[in-house]
């Protein structure tokens, strides 16, 4: 390369520059053949059928071959490993024919000593003036290091895919396990509570149930079932603890009470039997377990008349009766003890009648012990409950439970214990008078 | 299932002419036939297609189970024949496709009336009393080659492999695209191609058959061509003056001439 207007004369008088220029020219004059033969990559040219017409020293040295054994005697594919041959014939050659050039294809060559040489090959077809293909020029780069790196990448990728597949399998397994557990829990859950409440003649019923544990296994329970003689037994209670441990006790308690009720439905007898069973079952293990419970018998009145209620309590908060006239009575059962702690426990009884418009409410302490502040120092409490209930009276079983459900929802995170509500009411006569314009509420 | 879209079926040439169906082999796609197609299309209706998993086929239709056997590829051929209601078509199969054609002709009699096999081999692996040219280890090396070209190819091929329906021009611009395929699919096709043994099927070929071998072919050497010719009753053998495994690219005129000669003699 020379710049016009800057002849040889211009460098005269500057020995250093002239010297550099001369050395540079000498290098350039020497370079064409030298560069081809000793380039840091392999060069070869082949006829269109692959016969090698020209090959540089670098590539011959890499392959350990003599020029006279190669030129005119071998084809490009002959220099490849068998896998390379197959790849060349099925991919490389067709692509080169169609596109006229190819870049950066990984192939393996075979040296005279039988070793493999990983290379990256680029080829271009040289065309004549008529557009007819004349020969193929190929450059070959030693790609041993790069191939090792790529193989490492591939290996890592395969490992990652393997790990991903394993993780996915584990996730599926966990999901299946979770589903299986949920199914099992649902079956257990159904053994703790009636799926639906039976319909009682002349009595309206409503329930609410909340479990604090995410597996929906609770320590609160309720039931309502016929005794077969026109009377109905009902109970609602709370076992110690939460979660699966509590649930197993809940199940025992429920089925003991049901069995006891069919044997002798008298409230005192039923709770005494329960006390005996729980005490016998748990006291020996050194892990005493107990519950509080209200158990009662309800006899619906005839033709919409008053129903009578007999109940007994073992350490449970008193039942409330919302009267048709707006008053609230406590069915107090003082002195009753936790069921299951002592070999024999005193059971306190109470009774009342439910006239049309009256509603009986049983609840567990999840309601009164719901947090109304950040700590357990501020709890909802019984007084607040009595006030809330008084403001609802008179009402129906369903409306009362609906109002209490809204109240509980308002506690949000504060409702951190299992909670159960059971309301039994005798509809008013008429059930509900049409609203009048000067409704005092 | 839209078979024409699934197999990227293209129909060119004389609408009323006898049908010639061109089937590509392992490696590339129907573009392999680009140089011989014009000569055939002058008087023939030319049908080209891509096997599911190759070229412009619908990759979502690919399953490893179906395409791990040459019968799966033969079903592609039969389904394309049925879709186009072809009768007595001349099936031209390159390389492994020649054996696919044998299976298709047997599975759907009447659809394929004659066959031309381009560089066929019924068995690439050496067996007792038979020289296919390769050992099982050689085939393993090919699979490694596919794998080692994976990194470079997959990045360039990603838009093609992923499919880019909203920007079809991307696929057009990419070089190397007609030999591109999902590496997992290529591996299955390679294994199916090079480890199948179709030698026993050849004796059951009942249609007129032309065997076209190349004078220098490292994949299907001349003794394999002679074997195929000898095993198919009444077949004709033509040796093309061509180097390599793809005479339709390296010697398109000679290939077209031999095919047209065969087609003329069928009528």
Automatic annotation (TrEMBL), chain B:
GO terms for molecular function: hydrolase activity. Residues 21-258 form the AB hydrolase-1 domain. InterPro entries: AB_hydrolase_1 (IPR000073), AB_hydrolase_fold (IPR029058). It comes from the Bacteria. Keywords: Hydrolase. Coiled coil: none annotated. Gene3D superfamilies: alpha/beta hydrolase. Belongs to the AB hydrolase superfamily. PANTHER family: ESTERASE-RELATED. This is Alpha/beta hydrolase. The lineage of its organism: Bacteria, Bacillati, Actinomycetota, Actinomycetes, Kitasatosporales.
């Amino acid at each position: 390369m020379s710049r016009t207007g800057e002849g040889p004369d211009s460098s005269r008088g500057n020995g250093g520059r002239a010297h550099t220029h001369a050395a540079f020219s000498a290098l350039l004059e020497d370079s064409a053949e030298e560069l081809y033969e000793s380039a840091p990559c392999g060069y070869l040219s082949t006829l269109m059928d692959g016969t090698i017409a020209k090959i540089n020293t670098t590539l011959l040295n890499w392959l350990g071959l003599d020029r006279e054994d190669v030129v005119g005697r071998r084809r490009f594919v002959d220099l490849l490993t068998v896998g390379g041959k197959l790849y060349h014939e099925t991919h490389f050659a067709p692509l080169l024919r169609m596109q006229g050039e190819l870049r950066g294809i990984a192939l393996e060559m075979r040296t005279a000593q039988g070793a493999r040489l990983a290379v990256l090959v680029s080829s271009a077809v040289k065309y004549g003036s008529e557009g007819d293909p004349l020969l193929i020029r190929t450059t070959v780069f030693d790609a041993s290091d790069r191939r090792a790196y790529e193989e490492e990448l591939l290996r890592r990728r395969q490992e990652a895919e393997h790990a991903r597949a394993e993780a996915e399998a584990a996730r599926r397994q966990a999901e299946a396990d979770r589903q299986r557990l949920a199914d099992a829990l649902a079956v257990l859950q159904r053994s703790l509570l009636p799926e639906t409440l039976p319909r009682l003649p002349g009595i309206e019923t409503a329930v609410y149930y909340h479990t604090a544990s995410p597996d929906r296994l609770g320590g609160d329970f309720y039931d309502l079932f016929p005794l077969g003689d026109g009377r109905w037994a009902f109970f609602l209670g709370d076992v110690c603890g939460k979660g699966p441990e509590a649930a197993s006790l809940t199940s025992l308690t429920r089925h003991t009470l049901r069995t006891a009720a069919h044997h002798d439905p008298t409230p005192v007898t039923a709770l005494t039997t329960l006390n005996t069973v729980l005490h016998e079952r748990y006291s020996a293990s050194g892990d005493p377990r107990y519950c509080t419970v209200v158990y009662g018998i309800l006899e619906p009145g005839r033709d919409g008349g008053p129903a009578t209620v007999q109940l007994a309590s073992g350490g449970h908060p008193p039942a409330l009766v919302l009267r048709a006239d707006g008053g609230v009575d406590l069915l107090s059962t003082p002195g009753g003890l936790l069921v299951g702690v002592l070999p024999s426990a005193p059971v306190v009884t109470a009774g009342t009648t439910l006239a049309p418009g009256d509603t009986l409410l049983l609840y567990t302490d999840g309601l009164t012990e719901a947090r109304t502040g950040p700590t357990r120092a501020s709890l909802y409490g019984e007084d607040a409950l009595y006030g809330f209930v008084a403001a609802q009276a008179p009402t129906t079983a369903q409306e009362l439970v609906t109002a209490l459900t809204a109240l509980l929802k308002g506690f949000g995170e504060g409702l951190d214990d299992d909670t159960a509500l059971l309301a039994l009411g005798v509809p008013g006569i008429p059930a509900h008078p049409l609203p009048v314009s000067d409704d005092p509420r | 299932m839209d078979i024409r879209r699934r197999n990227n079926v293209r129909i060119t040439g004389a609408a009323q002419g006898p049908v010639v169906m061109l089937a590509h082999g392992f490696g590339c796609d129907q573009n392999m036939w680009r140089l011989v197609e014009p000569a055939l299309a002058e008087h023939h209706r030319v049908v080209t297609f891509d096997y599911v998993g190759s070229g412009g086929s619908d990759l979502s239709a690919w399953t490893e189970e179906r395409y791990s056997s040459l019968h799966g590829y033969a079903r592609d051929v039969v389904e394309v024949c049925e879709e186009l209601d072809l009768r007595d078509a001349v099936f031209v199969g390159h390389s492994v496709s020649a054996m696919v054609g044998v299976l298709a002709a047997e599975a759907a009699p009447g659809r394929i009336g004659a066959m031309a096999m381009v560089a066929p081999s019924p068995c690439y692996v050496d067996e007792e009393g038979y020289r296919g040219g390769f050992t099982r280890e050689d085939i393993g090396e090919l699979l490694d080659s596919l794998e080692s070209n994976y990194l470079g190819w997959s990045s360039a091929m990603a838009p093609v492999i992923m499919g880019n329906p909203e920007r079809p021009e991307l696929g057009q611009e990419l070089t190397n695209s007609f030999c591109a395929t999902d590496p997992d699919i290529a591996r299955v096709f390679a294994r199916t191609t090079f480890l199948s043994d179709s030698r026993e099927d050849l004796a059951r070929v009942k249609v007129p058959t032309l065997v076209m071998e190349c004078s220098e072919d490292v994949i299907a050497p001349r003794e394999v061509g002679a074997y195929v010719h000898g095993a198919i009753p009444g077949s004709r053998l033509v040796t093309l003056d061509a180097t390599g495994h793809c005479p339709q690219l390296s010697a398109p005129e000679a290939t077209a001439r031999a095919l047209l000669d065969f087609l003329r003699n069928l009528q």
